[in-house]
Specification:
Layout: H1 4-11, E1 20-21, E2 24-25, E3 28-29, H2 34-42, H3 46-57, E4 73-74, E5 80-81, E6 87-92, E7 111-117, H4 119-125, E8 135-142, H5 143-146, H6 162-178, E9 195-198, H7 202-205, E10 207-212, E11 222-226, H8 242-247, E12 249-250, H9 256-267, E13 272-274, H10 276-279, H11 285-292, H12 295-300, E14 304-307, H13 324-327, E15 330-332, H14 345-349, E16 371-375, H15 393-400, E17 403-407, E18 412-416, E19 420-422, H16 432-436, H17 443-456, H18 459-462, H19 472-488, H20 503-513, E20 517-518, E21 521-522, H21 526-529, E22 533-535, E23 546-547, E24 561-562, E25 564-566, H22 572-577, E26 581-582, E27 585-593, E28 602-617, H23 621-629, E29 637-638, E30 643-644, E31 650-651, E32 653-657, E33 672-683, E34 686-700, E35 706-718, H24 722-729, E36 733-739
Parallel strand pairs: 11-13, 11-14, 14-17, 28-29
Antiparallel strand pairs: 1-2, 3-6, 4-5, 6-7, 7-8, 8-16, 9-10, 9-13, 10-12, 15-16, 17-18, 18-19, 20-21, 22-25, 23-24, 26-33, 27-28, 28-33, 28-36, 30-31, 32-35, 33-34, 34-35
Helix pairs in contact: 2-3, 15-20, 17-19
C-alpha cells in the first residue's frame, strides 16, 4: 500500500511545471515533517518503509531523527531558520536513472520517482558524510509490463517456514533439470574435500561427525557454507580435537549459523556439509595452505553453497522474521483516489487529456490501470550490502559455486548462472544482465554481459574494446577487470590472504584466458594489467588506501594495496591492433610462492623490464619558485603541477598515488621516476595522445642492487608525444630494471 503523500507524489498535478529544466530535476515536497513520515511507516506504506530500511541499512543513519528539526533550526548567527520539508521528490522518464539497477522503465509511460532526505536533516543525522542528498529511486511500470515476473505465492513471515523451503527446492530442481550452463560442470564424486561433516546422525542422535575422505570415501554430493567468522569463533578444528570431531560433534554446541545451515542442507536432501572452520585445521599452517589451495575444487563441485548472508558472525541467523509489507510487490491504481480537474503530472507527461470527473474509490483488480512500484536497487542495495557480501573471501565463493542460496536479513535470494531470483520476485527482475555481470565466470554469460556493456559504452571507449564475437580469451580478460574491482573493495582481515582468497577464481578463469597467471595479472595482458588505479572513495567515509607489505604480493600487483582497484585488461596483441604504442618489454618474470601454489601468496615477485625511465619529483611551492626565479629548467618531471619545459608551460600530468604522500616523498631526494607504458590517440584520426605509465621509487635490495617499487600511476594528455616533451628538458635512457 501507499500513504497519501506517496500516492499524491505519483499521481497529482504540480501546476504544469516540467520535471526537468536545463537538465536538472525540479523537485517537490513529499513529507513536510518527520512526524508525517513516521506515521506513514506505521501505516506500512511500501515507499516509506523502504526509505526507512535503506537509511538504516545502506546509509547507517542514526534514527529516529531529531524531532526539533521539524520546528526549525538555528543558524550560527542566531537566526531561526524554518524547516521547509522533511523529504522531497522528483520524477524522470526514459533511459537509465542516476542509480541504475536491475529494474528499468519498460515503456514510454513508465517513469522514475526519486525521493531524498532534506539537506539539513541529513547533515543533522550524519554530519561526517559529504552526501547532502540521500537518494532512493523507485521504478514505476504498468502492471501488464511486469506481471510475468510476479508470483501468486504468498510470502511467509520467517525464512524457516515450509513455503520458503518449497520455493528454494523449486529453484534447485529447475536448475538441476533445465539449466544447461549450470550443469555443464556437474558435481563429481571423483573429487572429495579432504574432510567433511556427515549429517546422517542429526535426526537420531543430535550429532554430526567429521569424515576424513582420505580414509573413508563419501561417494555422494555435498553442500558448502559461506559465513562471517566475526570476532570470535568457538567451533574450530584443531590438532587436539580431530579425533573427538571424527567421533561426534554435538549440534547443540555449534553456533546458530552452523545449526541452521545443517537444517537447510538436510531439508534440501544433502547429507554432507563442508564448513571451513570445521574442515580445515585452524592451528596448522601447512594444512591451511594445502586446503586453501583447493577452494576452487571444493566450491566448484558442491551441489550448492549456503550463504549466511545477513549474519555478522556465528551467533547470527539464517532464519529471520521479516516485514512482508517491505518485500511484497507494490501495486497501486491511480484511479482509486479522487482526482482534481487539473491535469495530473502523469497526464501531462504522457500527453493525456485530464479527467473531469472524480474516479471511483473502489479497488480494482490488477489490470490496465494498475502500476507496479519497486525500489530500483532492490537487489544491489539489499543483497550486495549484506554483511557476508562485504567479505573478500566470499567473492570467489559466490562466483565459483554453481548455485548459491543467500539467507539475507530480509529474504532468501537465489544465484546461479542462468537465474537470479528472490522470494519477492521468484522469476527474477527485468534486467538479469545487471546481476549476471557479477557472476560472469562462464563464457556464455561473459559474452552476453559484455554485449550489453558494449552497447552502453561511449564510442571513444568502444573502439578500444574487443568484439563480442572475438576470442574467448579477450572477453575473459575484460571480465577479469570487473572481478578484480569487485574483490578489491571487499574487507579482508588478514592482509597476506589477498592472493590466496583469489586463487580459486584465478584457476577458474585460467581455463578461459589460457595464459600464465602472474600475481593477480595475466601474462598476455601485462601492459594494461600494470596500469591499475586505486579509487579514492573519501565520499563514502572509507580510509585512504595504502600499500601493505605483509600482503604477500609485489608492489606492481594490485594485491599489494588495500583499497578498491579500477583496471581494464586488454591483451597486448589487441592493443597493437588498436594502434596503441607499447613502450616496455617484459623480459622475464620470477615468482617465489610461499607454498606450493603459484596462484597463492608470494614471498617475492620480480619483473625484469626494458623501458624508458625519467627522473621525477613532487615539488613544494618554494622549491618550484626557486627554479622559476632562477630561470633554470627543471631537470625532471614535476609531478605536482605537470611537466615543465624550457618555456615553463604546464602540461597536463595526472597522478594517482598508491599511498598518502609523506614529507619524505617531496623533492629529488625521493628518488622517483616515471616509466611510460603505453600511448594511444584519444580519437581516431588525430587528437590528443594519451600516455599512461607508472611512477616508481628507486630502492636497493639487501645486497645493494638497485631495484624499483611502484609508487603510483600517471596519465599524460597532450597534442605532442610525451617523448618529444621530455626530450626538450632532459635526456632519457632505455634500460633494463627490476620491478619488485
Amino acid at each position: 500500500m501507499l500513504c497519501s503523500a506517496c500516492h499524491t507524489a505519483l499521481t497529482t498535478d504540480v501546476e504544469g511545471r516540467m520535471c526537468w529544466d536545463d537538465h536538472r530535476p525540479q523537485d517537490f515536497v513529499h513529507h513536510p515533517t518527520s512526524v508525517g513520515f513516521y506515521k506513514a511507516v506505521e501505516s506500512q506504506c511500501y515507499i516509506c518503509l523502504t526509505l526507512l530500511y535503506q537509511w538504516e541499512q545502506k546509509f547507517r543513519l542514526r534514527l529516529p531523527f531529531p524531532r526539533h528539526l521539524d520546528n526549525g533550526i538555528t543558524h550560527k548567527s542566531g537566526e531561526k531558520i524554518a524547516s521547509r520539508y522533511f523529504t522531497r521528490f522528483y520524477l524522470g522518464r526514459g533511459g537509465r536513472s542516476m542509480t541504475p539497477g536491475p529494474w528499468i522503465t519498460s515503456t514510454d509511460e513508465s517513469y522514475y520517482i526519486t525521493i531524498y532526505l532534506g539537506e539539513h536533516f541529513s547533515n543533522a543525522v550524519k554530519p561526517s558524510d559529504n552526501l547532502s542528498l540521500l537518494l532512493i529511486t523507485f521504478v514505476v511500470n504498468p502492471y501488464n509490463e511486469v506481471r510475468h515476473l510476479l508470483s501468486n505465492l504468498s510470502m511467509s513471515k520467517n525464512t524457516a517456514d515450509l513455503a520458503s523451503f518449497s520455493l528454494v527446492q523449486s529453484w534447485l530442481n529447475d536448475c538441476l533439470n533445465k539449466h544447461s550452463i549450470c550443469n555443464e560442470h556437474r558435481a563429481t564424486t571423483e573429487f572429495q574435500p579432504t574432510r567433511i561433516l556427515d549429517l546422517s546422525g542429526i535426526k537420531s542422535r543430535g550429532q554430526a561427525n567429521l569424515v576424513d575422505t582420505t580414509k573413508t570415501a563419501i561417494n555422494s554430493t555435498y553442500a558448502t557454507l559461506s559465513h562471517c567468522w566475526g570476532g570470535t569463533l568457538h567451533a574450530r578444528l584443531l590438532k587436539q580435537n580431530v579425533t573427538e570431531f571424527e567421533q561426534e560433534i554435538r549440534i547443540s554446541k555449534l553456533p546458530t549459523v552452523y545449526r541452521e545451515a545443517i537444517d537447510i542442507a538436510l531439508q534440501l536432501g544433502v547429507q554432507y556439509l563442508w564448513i571451513d572452520s570445521l574442515c580445515i585445521m585452524q592451528d596448522d599452517e601447512a594444512d591451511w595452505l594445502r586446503e586453501s589451495s583447493r577452494m576452487f575444487d571444493i566450491y566448484r563441485n558442491a551441489m550448492f553453497n549456503i550463504g549466511a548472508t545477513g549474519a555478522t558472525d556465528g551467533n547470527g541467523h539464517c532464519f529471520v522474521d521479516r516485514n512482508i509489507n517491505l518485500l511484497s510487490p507494490c501495486l497501486f491504481n491511480p484511479e482509486s483516489e479522487p482526482t482534481a480537474t487539473k491535469p495530473r503530472l502523469r497526464d501531462r507527461l504522457f500527453k493525456r487529456k485530464p479527467k473531469t470527473e472524480p474516479s471511483s474509490t473502489e479497488e480494482s483488480p490488477p489490470g490496465d490501470s494498475t502500476w507496479h512500484v519497486v525500489e530500483e536497487g532492490f537487489w544491489t542495495d539489499r543483497l550486495h550490502q549484506q554483511p557476508l557480501n562485504q567479505r573478500a573471501w566470499v567473492v570467489q565463493e559466490r562466483l565459483i559455486s554453481r548455485r548459491m542460496i543467500h539467507y539475507a536479513r530480509d529474504q532468501i535470494y537465489w544465484e546461479c548462472h542462468e537465474l537470479h531470483a528472490c522470494e519477492a520476485y521468484p522469476k527474477g527482475p527485468q534486467e538479469m544482465y545487471e546481476l549476471q555481470a557479477l557472476k560472469s565466470v562462464h563464457m556464455d554469460v561473459i559474452r552476453k554481459v559484455f554485449a550489453r556493456q558494449l552497447e552502453e559504452a561511449p564510442e571513444r571507449t568502444r573502439r578500444l574494446l574487443p568484439k563480442v564475437d572475438g576470442p574467448s580469451s579477450e572477453l575473459a580478460l575484460m571480465a577479469w577487470g570487473n572481478i578484480v574491482g569487485e574483490y578489491s573493495k571487499r574487507n579482508l582481515t588478514v592482509a597476506k590472504d589477498k592472493l590466496v582468497a583469489f586463487s580459486g577464481l584465478a584457476k577458474l578463469m585460467q581455463g578461459f584466458v589460457q595464459d600464465q597467471y602472474v600475481a593477480g595479472l595475466w601474462r598476455s595482458g601485462m601492459t594494461m594489467g600494470l596500469l591499475w588505479v586505486v579509487k579514492h572513495s573519501s565520499r563514502e567515509g572509507k580510509p585512504y588506501p595504502s600499500r601493505t607489505f605483509d600482503s604477500m604480493a609485489p608492489s606492481w600487483s594490485w594485491a599489494s594495496v588495500k583499497g578498491q582497484i579500477h583496471t581494464v585488461v586488454l591483451s597486448d596483441a589487441n592493443l597493437k591492433e588498436k594502434m596503441a604504442y607499447i613502450h616496455i618489454t617484459i623480459q622475464d618474470i620470477t615468482l617465489n610462492p610461499l607454498g606450493n601454489d603459484e596462484m597463492g601468496a608470494l614471498n617475492s615477485g620480480v619483473l625484469k623490464i626494458k623501458c624508458s625511465l625519467w627522473p621525477a619529483a613532487f615539488l613544494n611551492d618554494d622549491t618550484r619558485e626557486d627554479y622559476r626565479d632562477n630561470h633554470v629548467a627543471v631537470p625532471f618531471f614535476d609531478l605536482g603541477i605537470g611537466s615543465v619545459d624550457y618555456d615553463f608551460t604546464v602540461k597536463e600530468f595526472d597522478c594517482t598515488l598508491d599511498n598518502l604522500i609523506g614529507p619524505n616523498d617531496f623533492g629529488p631526494a625521493a628518488n622517483l621516476h616515471v616509466m611510460p607504458i603505453m600511448s594511444i590517440e584519444q580519437d581516431e584520426g588525430g587528437g590528443p595522445i594519451i600516455t599512461q605509465g607508472l611512477i616508481l621509487r628507486q630502492i636497493k635490495d639487501p645486497a645493494g642492487q638497485v631495484q624499483y617499487q611502484r609508487f603510483g600511476y600517471f596519465q599524460h594528455s597532450a597534442k605532442g608525444n610525451i617523448f618529444s616533451l621530455a626530450g626538450k628538458s632532459m635526456d632519457f635512457e632505455h634500460k633494463v630494471i627490476e620491478l619488485v
